[in-house]
């Protein structure tokens, strides 16, 4: 779906549909005022009768509107003018695009505002690219149709291109998460990463089973043992900064399907476990965008890829694993597998001498209990680094919240037979004890762990996005990488 820009008036442009933005409790201005004049005051009357309010996320459809060539106008609510930010712009454009994508359409022109700052425009364009794409990858009768041609008015061409790149990266992550586990497994994910790397000018290295064995990745390999699918480790390297500048490291959990292993999940808990590789998919999407945007920063992205399945060869409760770092781990729950995968991936990451590390993982149901489905949890060993990440997330409108990392939580993962164990003591504080486990493998590097178990996968549709993979975190990582440069 190509994105272009225009300077044509909304009354003159030829398009199947137009999108016009209005603010709540504010006089009509810009394109909205122009349409109101051309339509003989139609929009003003709808506001007076409270059929349209301009509140955030509102979408109103006007059929056969007078004064324009388009057969349909979507009026998108932007909320109060003083609270307009990138998150609002993204969701407003995405909600309008999602509404229009209910049927096949050709040219759609967006007139959300006049002369938005480039950051707002970039977010809105990104939303228009994301909102019209659904999860119906294998339906004979589609429910969502990507817009064939997206045109933006009042937007700088460079900002539009950046927004398009971001939108395509978010959609890459969403597609990978939405694919069934029969299609996305460690080897096929690695192949997809190779395709993305070659198209985006990123160096890539893929470690197969034999290389992982040679590298003594005993923790990751234990999780993979129960599956007929061999594990992989993908290492992506983008060099946009100075040659001697240590890279920013992005690390993603890539459990392409999680049965729970011998600690098997119930059916309801297993239904959406194709999404347990969302951390790795987010890293791949972010790396694609960072490279295509040519950000002046060095970044490495690592994706640890396994299936957690059951067989006679599955790892067992009571097993003691030796991680790549040499640390020993007592296994007390085979469904606490993501941290075992990341233990080895983080150790590989430390060996690449990064300046700072971020890992993303659909790690714990405990984080969802604590923060709900829409908010990711942040845990860190470096407050300044965590603050920088939270600032980037807030700027993009991706909600995150920091959880404490008190030293006492680390005592809960001390084992009597090994150095550490892979679960804490009982149910309480499970997201934090999982993070304390990961902290054991970052060698003191500035590090933030993002538990995306809630927002990575939407159980039901939002006004601006279909159910399924959300692409949460891609925009935040790209924003942070741009600020890090």
Brief synopsis:
The chain is 36% helix and 20% strand. It has helices at residues 30-38, 42-48, 86-100, 118-131, 157-178, 186-200, 209-214, 218-224, 267-270, 278-292, 338-351, 365-371, 383-396, 407-411, 430-439, 474-484; strands spanning 3-6, 17-22, 59-63, 72-77, 107-111, 149-153, 203-207, 232-239, 248-258, 298-308, 320-322, 328-330, 356-361, 376-380, 400-402, 420-421, 447-451, 457-458, 468-469.
Describe the model.
This protein is α/β, with parallel strands linked by helices. It folds into two domains: 3-155, Leucine Aminopeptidase, subunit E, domain 1; 171-484, Zn peptidases (Aminopeptidase), CATH 3.40.630. It has 16 helices and 19 strands. It has helices at 30-38, 42-48, 86-100, 118-131, 157-178, 186-200, 209-214, 218-224, 267-270, 278-292, 338-351, 365-371, 383-396, 407-411, 430-439, 474-484, and strands spanning 3-6, 17-22, 59-63, 72-77, 107-111, 149-153, 203-207, 232-239, 248-258, 298-308, 320-322, 328-330, 356-361, 376-380, 400-402, 420-421, 447-451, 457-458, 468-469. The strands form four sheets. An eight-stranded mixed beta sheet has the order 7-8-10-9-13-17-14-15, with helices on both faces. Strand 3 and strand 4 form a beta hairpin. Helix 11 packs parallel to helix 15.
């Amino acid at each position: 779906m190509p994105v272009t820009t225009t300077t044509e008036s909304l009354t003159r442009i030829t398009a199947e549909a137009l999108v016009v933005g209005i603010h709540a409790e504010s006089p009509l201005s810009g394109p909205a005022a122009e349409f109101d004049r051309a339509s003989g005051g139609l929009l003003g009357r709808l506001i007076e009768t409270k059929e349209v309010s301009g509140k955030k996320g509102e979408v109103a459809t006007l059929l056969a509107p007078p004064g324009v060539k388009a057969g349909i106008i979507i009026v998108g609510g932007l909320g109060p003018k003083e609270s307009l930010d990138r998150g609002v712009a993204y969701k407003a454009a995405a909600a309008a695009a999602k509404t229009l994508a209910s049927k096949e359409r050709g040219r759609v022109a967006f007139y959300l505002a006049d002369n938005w700052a480039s950051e707002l425009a970039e977010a809105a364009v990104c939303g228009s690219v994301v909102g019209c794409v659904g999860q119906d990858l294998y339906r004979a009768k589609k429910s969502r149709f990507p817009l064939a041609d997206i045109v933006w008015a009042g937007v700088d061409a460079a900002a539009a291109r950046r927004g398009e790149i971001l939108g395509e990266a978010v959609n890459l992550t969403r597609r990978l998460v939405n694919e069934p586990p029969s299609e996305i497994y460690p080897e096929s994910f690695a192949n997809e990463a190779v395709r993305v790397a070659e198209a985006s000018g990123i160096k890539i290295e893929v470690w197969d089973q034999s290389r992982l064995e040679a590298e003594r990745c005993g923790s990751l390999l234990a999780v993979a043992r129960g599956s007929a699918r061999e594990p992989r480790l993908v290492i992506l390297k983008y060099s946009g900064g100075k040659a001697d500048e240590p890279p920013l490291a992005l690390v993603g959990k890539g459990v392409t399907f999680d049965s729970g292993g011998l600690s098997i999940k119930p059916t309801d808990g297993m239904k959406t476990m194709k999404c347990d590789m969302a951390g790795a998919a987010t890293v791949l999407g972010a790396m694609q965008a960072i490279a295509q945007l040519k950000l002046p920063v060095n970044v490495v992205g690592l994706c640890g890829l396994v299936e957690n399945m059951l067989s006679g060869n599955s790892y067992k409760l009571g097993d003691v694993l030796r991680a790549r770092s040499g640390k020993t781990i007592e296994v007390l729950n085979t469904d606490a597998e993501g941290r075992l995968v990341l233990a080895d991936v983080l150790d590989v990451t430390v060996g690449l001498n990064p300046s700072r590390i971020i890992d993303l993982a659909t790690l714990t149901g405990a984080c969802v209990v604590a923060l709900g489905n829409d908010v990711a949890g942040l845990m860190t060993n470096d407050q300044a680094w965590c603050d920088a990440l939270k600032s980037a997330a807030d700027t993009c409108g991706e909600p995150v919240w920091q959880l404490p990392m008190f030293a006492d939580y680390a005592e809960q993962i001390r084992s009597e037979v090994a150095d550490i164990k892979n679960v804490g003591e009982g149910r309480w504080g499970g997201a934090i004890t999982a993070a304390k486990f990961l902290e054991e493998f970052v060698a003191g590097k500035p590090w933030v762990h993002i538990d995306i178990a809630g927002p990575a996968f939407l159980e039901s549709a939002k006004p601006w996005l279909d159910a399924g993979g959300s692409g949460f975190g891609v925009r935040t990582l790209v924003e942070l990488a741009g600020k890090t440069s």
